[in-house]
Amino acid sequence: MERNIAQIALFAAMIAALGLVPQITLGFGVPITAQTLGVMLAGAVLGARRGAAAAALFLLLVALGLPLLAGGRGGLGAFVAPTAGFALGFPVAAFATGLFVEHVRLRSAGLAAGLGAVFGGIAVLYVFGATGLAIVAQKSLLEAFTLVAVFIPGDLLKAAITGMLVQALARVRPQTLAWHHQAAGPGERRL
Predict the structure, then answer these.
(1) Which end of the chain, C or N, has fewer beta carbons within 10 A?
(2) Does Transmembrane appear among the keywords (predicted)?
(3) Contact status, residue 159 vs residue 121, Cβ threshold 8 Å
């Protein structure tokens, strides 16, 4: 139990720390940030529930006023900004990434994590992000998706980094990835 709490807190802190990485803000107010890498890693390493809990803890700290979002933003006002959909999607994206790695049976933990990050950290997160942008900026959903599409190449790079880091972790500390060992039951073969 204590280990789970510590891991959740550690990954919430990592998501916050990745917001300190210098950012570039595009003309419509959505910054290019490394925080989504933290969300991808939380789901890929901790699995669905604990990854989502880490992202939710991060959002709770932001809501309490800590300036943890990229650019030093925090407080309830951050949840009505153009980036609000992305931020609110963090727990769901981490959950979806974790769900993918827990249920898609691949021999390579890195490949499972990379593909899970594309699914949760890009596809699922973009639904939230574009929807939030459309609402706040009063644009159509198609316009919002078109605006956020510029982030896809960078997010694909983050998904690849997630896969590489999880593969390295699987080599040096395989016990850290409990989902990888549990995924193949007795008599099952991994793809």
Answers:
(1) N
(2) yes
(3) yes
Q: Token pair 């991994």 is at which residue?
A: 190
Could you give the 3-state DSSP secondary structure of residue 71?
A: coil
Let me know if residue 99 belongs to a domain.
yes
DSSP string, 97-144: HHHHHHHS--S-HHHHHHHHIIIIIIIIHHHHHHHHHHHHHT--HHHH
Domain span holding position 44: 2-182
Q: Which two tokens stand for residue 139?
A: 């644009």
Q: What is the pLDDT along the chain (191 residues), one digit of tens a residue?
A: 888 999 999 999 999 999 887 666 655 556 678 999 999 999 999 999 999 999 999 999 999 999 999 888 999 999 999 889 999 999 999 999 999 999 998 889 999 999 999 999 999 999 999 999 999 999 999 999 999 998 899 999 999 999 999 999 999 998 888 776 554 444 444 44
Q: Tokens 């769900």 sit at which residue?
A: 99
Q: Spell out a b/e string for 97-111, using b for 16 or more CB atoms within 10 Å of the CB, else e.
A: bbbbbbeeebebbbb
User: Are the CB atoms for 129 and 85 separated by under 8 Å?
Assistant: yes
Helix (H) or strand (E) holding 31, with range, is: strand 31-32
Q: What is the CATH number of the domain that holds 67?
A: 1.10.1760.20
Residue 188 belongs to some domain of the structure: no
Domain count of the fold of the chain: 1
Q: Which two tokens stand for residue 183?
A: 């995924």
Q: How far apart are CA 81 and CA 154, in angstroms?
A: 22
